[in-house]
Amino acid sequence: MSYSKTTLAKADRILEKRRAKAERIHLARHMEITNKIPQISELETMLSQTGLEVVKAIGMGKDAKEYIENLSVHNLAVQENIKELLNKNGYSVDYLQTPYTCPICNDTGFSGIYYCECRKELLKEIALNELSAVSTSEKCSFDNFKLDYYPLPVDPQLGISPQKRMNEVFNYCKCYAEDFDLDSESLYMHGATGLGKTHLSLAIANEVTKNGYHVIYDTAQNIFSTLEREKFGHGNSYDKEKDILECDLLIIDDLGSEFTTQFTTAALYNIINTRINRSKPVIISTNLTDEELEEKYTQRVTSRIIGNYVSIFFLGKDIRQLKKNF
Question: Both 85 and 178 in a single domain?
């Protein structure tokens, strides 16, 4: 699993602020207590001297073990005296402990050589916030996807019930999100406008992000505009392109709505081809037919999508129009 440099940097800044705040609080409390209860300062001095005594024990040979054990008993007694003084003066016994948000990693983000669970949760939270910043992801979940908007009667032209078909699509997308891993297949969501393609792709994005994977979701227009600015702008940073090519799941929504140029066609082919070669899943949603897709992006692009993605055809009537009439 991977996250963008931006996401990682945000997490590190938050952890740094948490750690700095906790240490400021600790320092202020320590100054308060040592001024109010001078005996505690004396007891702390006794504890600090223990370190020197341990160094002294190194040269004591076989007697070192017993000596260190005695020091440990002494230290515990001193610590208990500090707690008693705090309690006697109306403070909690842990008042002088640094109030880190995460006591496991002390807000460093690492537990030993591994990421602490708090850092993993923080990265998920940041990733979900980034997702909601570019979409309506907080409003699109599997729980609020309504199959009632799809006609139950069999479509005479297609010979199937749109509602039953979309129930199959819904269940497939839900299972896809729940079972997602780095070997998941790519999806090609296509059909007329307003049939729930964006809703289900965002529901997948939410679920997969919550499971700790790095998801990039955006419209085709925004993705290609960003790539074009990075390539032809004054800066030399190609971080966005790297993220798009390397994230765990890339979702390109509303492909075909953008203004198509030689650059966008080349960029789309590079994204699709590179991620196929790296076995990295992509979800593409579009209102275009296969013929319109080929006309807009060339047969070379279309064949890579149709030949390598699971095709999911959306049926029904424009849900947005139906909602207006409810």
Answer: no
Domain co-membership, 196 together with 295: yes
| Inside any domain, residue 120 | no
Take residue 9 and report the two structure tokens written for it: 């940097």
- Counting DSSP H helices and E strands in the chain, the numbers are 11, 7
With a threshold of 0.70, does the pTM exceed it? yes
- How many Cβ atoms from other residues are within 10 Å of residue 282's Cβ? 22
Verify that 84 and 210 share a domain, yes or no: no
DSSP letters for 16-59 = HHHHHHHHHHHHHHHHHHHHH-HHHHHHHHHHHHHHHHHHHHGG
- pLDDT of 235 strictly over 70: no
**What backbone torsions phi and psi does residue 202 show, to the nearest 5 degrees?**
-75, -35
> Is the pLDDT assigned to residue 12 strictly greater than 80?
yes
Rg (the chain; Cα; Å): 29
pLDDT, average across residues 259-277: 94
Q: Are 207 and 176 in contact (CB under 8 A)?
A: no
- Given a cut of 50, is residue 326 above it in pLDDT? no
| Number of separate domains in the chain | 2
Q: Are 256 and 307 within one domain?
A: yes
Long-range CB contacts (within 8 A, 24+) of 37-40: 37/85, 37/86, 37/89, 39/85, 40/82, 40/85, 40/86, 40/96
Query: Same domain for 98 and 143?
Result: no
121, part of any domain: no
Q: State mean pLDDT over 2-31.
A: 93
- Find the domain containing 269 and state its range: 134-325
Contact 319, 153 (CB under 8 A): no
